[in-house]
Write a structure and sequence with these properties.
The complex is a heterodimer of chains A (252) and B (260).
Chain A: E1 2-3, E2 9-10, E3 13-18, H1 25-38, E4 43-47, H2 55-63, H3 69-93, E5 97-101, H4 104-113, H5 118-124, E6 133-138, H6 141-149, H7 170-192, E7 195-198, H8 203-214, H9 228-235, H10 243-246
Parallel strand pairs in A: 3-5, 3-6, 4-5, 6-7
Antiparallel strand pairs in A: 1-2
Helix pairs in contact in A: 2-3, 4-7
Chain B: E1 23-28, H1 35-48, E2 53-57, H2 65-73, H3 79-103, E3 107-111, H4 114-123, H5 128-134, E4 143-148, H6 151-161, H7 179-200, E5 204-207, H8 212-227, H9 235-250
Helix pairs in contact in B: 1-8, 3-4, 3-9, 4-7
Classes of the chains: A alpha/beta (252), B alpha/beta (260).
Chain lengths: 252, 260
């Protein structure tokens, strides 16, 4: 079960993934989602920094380099608040499974790495639903940097932590910033009881572990389609082969 | 400011050693009480006394001002989201407008401050500890002028000015179907909330049921007192100071001091 901050439990299940960039968490969450959908569950998916209401403001702030540690923190909190109020909470109340790629621990890690007070940012996120399971993909810094930086990608200003003025070189700045975030994650493992996954294991092995961890929480979760209409379809000699084209599995 | 204090933990990266010679003056009050009129008059008068004035108000930040207004237009803004959006707007103006102006010696006049945001949150049933701790980053102002008027005085003013507004009537949560009933219910609870906050936040209550001229006279008298220990600084000099402050802020290094 997922829990509200005041301890009340919700019938749905909230599974979230965390880890520094290049830990492979999004890949694992995507695999988990496909599996859960295949098992017949209704799965809602929510990505960090994706609220249609707030996103344009965050984008403006990033593009124009307007964000300070405090405003960066608050605008991301507003983003999760909107997704919580309109998407996550309704789905959990309905008893569904919600998957979130990055969650409050991302904010705690990044904002504190930027110099924001740890107790303040934790208080700001008091509204957030406590996850059923929080998976933390632990990866050594060198390994994650190799995965991310090997192609020499163009790093964005805030992504590289350039606002912290740790280094003039974006790649070096990125590495120093990720180091700080990694340190924060490690502190949070005990504080929040994060479930650690060894992100250096082969993909398939990691996925097996992930499924093993979530499986005990699945009984009772809302099923996607009360099988009735599939049966009706079968009676009409159609199997919904092309439904995938009109009903995208996952909303854009 | 006569004394630099925050309502809570303060602002990340704020340098407490640098003085803020300006003054932060807040004008608070519910919708239709005449805040903008009085601020416009006050601003002119303070400038005529030789001070540089920076005016600001809710939803005017470069970062989040447009975003909030757009979100409110769609009536799709949830309760928690709205508060965090307002907080983003507030912190952006505090860091980018208010504090630089205070450093440069401006008299900063703000049309509403955290109190309005807290009041609108509390009447909507938001956790009081939560909302207060968020605004722990806010500076305690030198003075808060609370323009006070009861509902019978407010209603004709709102009707005469622009009619009832969706949000000012609390239509997003009040269980009333027409604007008038909703406005009455919502504004009454807002007023009660402001009354309750007056003591906690040391408001200087000003009777706003009087004529515009009388309200202004009272405000002027209070303002004289607040500015009594502050020397005027010419707008030209203040603008130059402000440019300097902003130039320094651009190369400021948040977080660097933690790095070895």
């Amino acid at each position: 079960m997922a829990h509200l901050a005041d301890g009340r439990s919700l019938p749905g299940k909230l599974f979230i993934v965390e880890g520094i960039d290049g830990s492979g968490k999004s890949t694992q969450l995507d695999l988990l989602r496909k599996w859960l959908v295949g098992e017949g569950y209704l799965v809602a998916f929510s990505e960090w920094n994706s609220s249609p209401l707030v996103k344009s403001t965050t984008k403006l702030g990033k593009k124009e380099l307007m964000l300070t540690p405090s405003s960066f923190s608050l605008i991301h909190a507003a983003d999760l608040a909107d997704r919580t109020e309109r998407q996550i909470l309704p789905a959990l109340k309905a008893g569904a499974i919600v998957l979130a790629d990055r969650y409050i621990y991302t904010a705690f890690g990044r904002d504190v790495a930027r110099g924001v007070s740890p107790s303040w940012v934790r208080k700001v996120y008091d509204f957030a639903v406590r996850p059923t399971v929080a998976l933390y993909f632990r990866v050594p810094l060198e390994e994650s940097l190799r995965r991310i930086l090997d192609g020499r990608p163009q790093l964005k200003y805030y992504e590289a932590g350039m606002d912290l003025r740790l280094s003039h070189d974006p790649y070096e700045s990125f590495a120093l910033f990720q180091r700080r975030i990694l340190d924060e994650y490690e502190k949070m493992v005990d504080e929040f009881g994060l479930t650690v996954i060894d992100a250096t294991l082969p993909l398939v092995e990691q996925q097996e572990i992930v499924r093993e961890i979530v499986t005990p929480h699945l009984p009772g979760a809302l099923q996607a389609e009360p099988s009735a209409w599939r049966e009706v379809l079968a009676g009409e000699s159609v199997y919904g082969r092309y439904l995938g084209e009109v009903l995208p599995e996952r909303e854009a | 400011m006569t004394e630099i204090r925050f309502y809570g933990e303060g602002l990340a990266g704020f340098d407490r050693k640098k003085p803020l010679p300006g003054r932060l003056i807040v004008v608070e009050g519910t919708d239709g009480v005449g805040r903008s009129t009085q601020i416009a008059l006050l601003r002119e008068w303070v400038e005529s006394k030789g001070y540089a004035v920076q005016a600001t108000g809710l939803k005017r930040s470069a970062l989040a001002g447009v975003g909030i207004k757009q979100a409110m237009q769609g009536h799709t803004l949830g309760n928690i989201t709205a508060n965090l959006f307002y907080a983003t707007d507030m912190v952006d103006r505090l860091e980018k407008v208010i504090i630089p102006a205070l450093r440069a010696g401006f008299v900063v006049l703000t049309d509403r401050y955290v109190y309005s945001i807290i009041a609108r949150a509390l009447v909507r049933g938001v956790d009081p500890t939560w909302i207060r701790s968020i605004f722990g980053f806010a500076l305690v102002p030198d003075a808060v002028f609370y323009l006070q008027a009861d509902l019978p005085h407010l209603i004709p003013r709102v009707l005469g000015a622009r009619g009832f507004d969706y949000w000012e009537s609390g239509m997003d949560f009040v269980a009333q179907h027409d604007y008038f009933d909703a406005f009455v219910e919502y504004q009454s609870s807002l007023l009660a909330q402001f009354e309750a906050m007056a003591k906690e936040y040391v408001f200087r209550s000003i009777d706003a049921t009087a004529s515009i001229r009388d309200v202004f006279r009272t405000l002027k008298g209070e303002m004289k007192e607040v500015l009594s220990d502050m020397k005027p600084i010419s707008p030209k000099k203040a603008e130059k100071e402000l440019a300097d402050v902003k130039a320094v802020d651009r190369v400021a290094v948040p977080g660097r001091k933690h790095e070895k």
